[in-house]
Amino acid sequence: MKSVRAEGAPLQKGRTRGKRPSSSPVAHKTAHTLSATQAERTFSDLLNRVRYRGEAFVIERGGEPVCEISPVKPPRFTGADLAALLRSLPKPDAGFWDAVEEATRQES
Q: Within a 10 A sphere around the Cβ of 55, how many other Cβ atoms?
């Protein structure tokens, strides 16, 4: 993992303002490493870099990784996913269809 300071991209106010990157925000290459103290002091800028640049950060305490802050992956469920889910469900038996017909008659 690379250090933010070693990479030459210090956390500074105003440097992360702008549009969301055109590529997927979760397509970050390597998470940057920050101490808990540095993350605390620059938290707002840290969140801007995650949101607008799609960067990820590993937060360390005492030199040990504690957590990762990264962009949230958007939920993805396509029509093909729905079709696959429906195909995987058990097929209704004849008794089910009889119950549906009876319920439909009672509704009329």
A: 23
Contact between residue 48 and residue 20 where contact means Cβ atoms under 8 Å apart: no
CB 46 within 8 A of CB 36: no
pLDDT tens digits, one per residue of 54-90: 899 999 999 999 999 999 987 788 899 899 999 999 9
d(CA 59, CA 68): 6
pLDDT in tens, 18-37: 444 333 334 445 789 999 99
- Secondary element (H or E) of residue 85: helix 79-88
Residues in the chain: 108
Q: What is the pTM of this model?
A: 0.46
CA 102 to chain CA mean position, Å: 46
